[in-house]
Design brief:
The protein is an alpha/beta fold. The chain folds into 3 domains: about 190 residues, 3-Layer(aba) Sandwich (Rossmann fold), CATH 3.40.50.740; about 220 residues, Dimethylsulfoxide Reductase, domain 2; about 120 residues, Barwin-like endoglucanases (Beta Barrel). Helices cover about 30% and strands about 15% of the residues. The protein is built from 28 helices and 28 strands. The protein has a 6-stranded mixed β-sheet, with helices on one face. The protein has a 6-stranded mixed barrel with strand order 23-27-24-26-25-28. Strands 11-10-9-13-14 form a 5-stranded parallel β-sheet, sandwiched between helices. It binds ligand MGD (2 copies) and molybdenum atom.
Length: about 700
């Protein structure tokens, strides 16, 4: 590595964007060799998928790395919880304080389960996301955290039908001729795949987006289909109805590789006539018929197969798991799985057989340890879950005060004087304001890591480019210190991060679907440090072209025996949202509007909100509302409104627009309370109710009312 910059001597270092996004971009950091300071950061042109360009947020990444508000030293709280007043302490004192508290709690009658680790995907690196931290908390016997806040509804939904995630080689999607962004704001949340969709469009593909909101992606698509929130499962059943009614199904694929064809056929033909689906989804019969025809007959009409980019937006509803289970049945009906780049794509993460058992050591978990669903942090902190109260909370890679549902109750829980809270982060987040001990974390430029991706098929290592700022430490290092302070077996913690990464590439994990068990074979850490390495998968990889579904039957399970045995409906069916005007008219009489709260393009969930340029580009907090709903409430364009329900309220500026249908409102998240004038973000109104499958979050399943704020 090496290179020249004007005047100063510089060198370049290859890294990986660590943020929670399917793109997992390759980055090149230019460092001033004399000062050791990073002076430039760009996309890695040699990365076959991310091809040298970065999103708006990471283009500005040095603003975040060298932000004047970076946490540089451990702190202890001196003010009230939430007030944000802290005093510098040493690492020694911080580690000793934490270990003493953990030891005391573990020895108490309540035991180590009264300690709760809380983390999500602030970084997606295999080591920083989940390695020594898991080993530490497993060894300690702390409560287990079920990490459900984002992806589990669809993951389990997919598993029921396919036995794994819906996956393809995303690069092969240039071959698709009919591309459906289903609950996916692809042009914002997966920009390199959007580029591939564009390439496909140049080759004749039609792009359709199914979304209650005219998202940037919907606006740029050939066709925006505005479903009512949470009704995607019904739409998919209606499409199946039309396919079977017209006889457009691929009988050969169905009979060779699927179970339950006749049961499903019977179900959709009798129970999901198009008129009923129109009533549920708010679409017209013509629109549904046309969508079904173009989707199912894409090969004749557009010259090639169809691909559904099924994403997270549609999962955040009570029936989100079943919706995904249902949607991923569709490519079996059309036979699109036969073709590379066609079928459906949720996530490629299961294509990487990293040795997660070795990384996280689940064998250390004491028998009978309870599991807490992270979506229910509010309940956990208020002592409402089985297994006793939470006495200590250790937060890293996450900002629950901003991202969790039922925010007011999360905050009152965090404010408990008897709760001992540690927050390890790069910044003084809304959550850190409630900590007893704050620990400074390194950024991706300052530590080593190894990455898979959930949006492409390359393994990459992140080489550290600069030294840690101040006294910041990587997650792994903090758990080494804590492991030592607790007197845990040194061998659990003593390998270096590089050694752990190298070994994690070595042995295939137990759950690996057949066909990808060898995907990492022969890929060395050295190769991954030099740049992106493609998994050992064939160029025209189409994992289900010949069946080979890793389900119990080995087939695509249109009918699920496992579901039947669990006492549930074995066939796809429509599960309405928890807060649905059609099925909950009494609730809707008070709170008639269905509110969606997807992230703002300039933020990544709550990350980047404190970067001034990005916050400015996000503008104000807005609420998009249809002219009919605005008029009914006397709300003018540009006026401040209060959005509320029984859980809470927040303020936003009304944008009266036809970007939503009547009955739907949209506000873009996820602001930090401290950057708002009312100390609240949209999660004051969201609920901790979970999805049908996977215990997932239901952020978009949320009835609210809106009122003009008097001036
Ligand atoms: N209303 C509503 N709520 C939502 C969503 C929504 O669409 N609407 N989206 C949901 C989704 S999809 C998700 S995934 C969750 C995301 O929830 P979180 O995973 O909490 O995501 P972030 O808000 O990005 O916060 C991550 C934090 O990790 C920190 N961090 C980054 N790297 C490191 C590191 O190496 N070490 C340590 N210790 N800390 C680090 C960052 O500084 C940041 O404060 O939010 C959910 N919440
Ligand atoms: N810029 C940016 N990129 C990101 C993120 C970010 O915060 N900012 N977050 C990252 C993370 S953690 C995740 S999980 C992914 C999420 O990426 P996406 O899956 O694209 O998720 P969202 O943007 O939350 O929602 C996508 C769309 O679903 C729509 N939607 C809501 N409810 C429904 C419904 O019932 N049916 C249908 N059909 N559509 C619905 C929303 O209006 C939204 O436009 O993006 C990742 N990429
Ligand atoms: Mo997410």
């Amino acid at each position: 590595m090496g290179g020249r910059h004007a005047l100063t001597q510089v060198h370049t270092v290859k890294g990986v964007c660590p943020h929670d996004c399917p793109d997992t971009c390759g980055m090149v950091v230019t460092v001033d060799s004399a000062t050791g300071r990073a002076v430039d950061l760009r996309g890695d042109k040699d990365h076959p998928f991310t091809r040298g360009f970065l999103c708006q947020k990471v283009n500005n990444y040095l603003d975040r790395v060298y932000h004047p508000d970076r946490l540089l030293h451990p702190l202890k709280r001196v003010g009230r919880k939430g007030e944000g007043r802290f005093e510098r302490i040493s690492w020694d004192e911080a580690i000793r304080t934490i270990a003493d508290r953990f030891r005391t709690i573990a020895a108490s009658e309540e035991g180590p389960q009264a300690i709760l680790p809380y983390s999500y995907a602030g970084t997606m690196g295999k080591l920083m996301y989940g390695s020594l931290d898991r080993r530490f908390f497993h060894r300690l016997g702390a409560s287990l955290l079920d990490r459900t806040i984002c992806a589990t509804a669809g993951a389990v939904g997919c598993d029921v039908t396919l036995g794994t995630r819906a996956m393809i080689d995303p690069e092969a999607a240039v071959n698709a001729k009919f591309i459906v962004n289903w609950g996916s704001n692809t042009s914002v949340t997966n920009i390199h795949f959007w580029k591939i969709e564009h390439e496909a469009r140049k080759r004749g593909a039609k792009i359709v987006t199914i979304d209650p909101y005219r998202s940037p992606t919907a606006a740029k698509s050939d066709w925006w289909i505005a479903t009512r929130p949470g009704t995607d499962g019904a739409l998919a059943l209606g499409v199946m109805h039309v396919i079977f009614r017209e006889g457009w199904q691929d009988d050969e694929f169905l009979s060779r590789y699927c179970v339950g064809v006749s049961e499903l056929r019977q179900r959709v033909l009798t129970e999901y006539p198009v008129a009923k689906v129109a009533q549920i989804t708010g679409l017209s019969v013509e629109e549904i018929e046309r969508f079904a025809r173009e989707y199912a007959r894409a090969k004749e009409l557009f010259g090639g197969p169809a691909l559904i980019r099924v994403n997270y937006g549609l999962q955040r509803h009570g029936g989100g798991g079943m919706a995904v289970r249902t949607i991923v049945c569709l490519p079996a009906l059309t036979g699109d799985w036969r073709h590379a780049g066609a079928g459906a794509l949720l996530s490629t993460s299961k294509a990487y057989p990293f040795d997660d058992h070795y990384l996280t050591r689940p064998d250390l978990i004491p028998r009978g340890t309870r599991t807490i669903n992270m979506v229910q942090l509010a309940e956990a902190l208020h002592g409402e879950l089985p297994g006793g109260p939470v006495r200590a909370l250790y937060v890293y890679n996450s900002n629950p005060a901003a991202v969790n549902p039922d925010q007011s109750r999360v905050l009152s829980g965090l404010a408990r004087e008897d709760l001992f809270t540690v927050v390890h982060d790069q910044f003084q987040t809304d959550t850190a304001d409630y900590a007893d001990i704050v620990l400074p974390a390194t950024t991706q430029l300052e530590h080593f890591d190894i990455h898979n991706s959930y949006g492409h098929l390359y393994v990459q290592a992140n080489n550290p480019a600069i030294r840690p700022l101040g006294e910041a430490k990587p997650n792994t290092e903090v758990f080494r210190l804590l492991g030592r302070a607790m007197g845990f077996e040194p061998e659990l913690f003593e390998e270096s991060d590089e050694q752990i990464a190298a070994r994690s590439l070595g042995a295939p994990g137990a759950e690996t679907p057949e066909g990808i068990a060898s995907a990492l074979r022969g890929i060395t850490l050295d190769a991954a440090r030099a740049g992106p390495v493609r998994l050992n998968l064939p160029r025209d990889w189409a994992p289900f072209a010949n069946g080979e579904f890793p389900t119990p039957s080995g087939k695509c399970e249109l009918y699920s025996e496992r579901e039947a045995r669990a006492g549930r409906d074995p066939l796809p069916h429509y599960v309405p949202p928890h807060e649905d005007p059609q099925t909950k008219p009494e609730l809707a009489a008070k709170y008639p509007l269905q509110m969606l709260t997807p992230p703002a393009p300039s933020f990544l969930n709550s990350t980047f909100v404190n970067v001034d340029t990005l916050r400015k580009s996000a503008g104000e907090r807005t609420l998009e509302i249809h002219p009919i709903d605005a008029a009914a409430r006397g709300i003018d364009h540009g006026q401040m409104v209060t959005v509320f329900n029984a859980r809470g309220r927040f303020r936003a500026k009304a944008l009266v627009a036809d970007s939503v249908k009547p009955g739907v409102v949209v506000t873009l998240g996820l602001w930090w309370r401290k950057f708002t004038d009312d100390g609240a973000n949209c999660n004051t109104t969201t609920s901790t109710a979970t999805t049908d499958f996977g215990g997932g979050a239901t952020f978009f399943d949320n009835l609210v009312e809106v009122a003009a704020v008097g001036v």
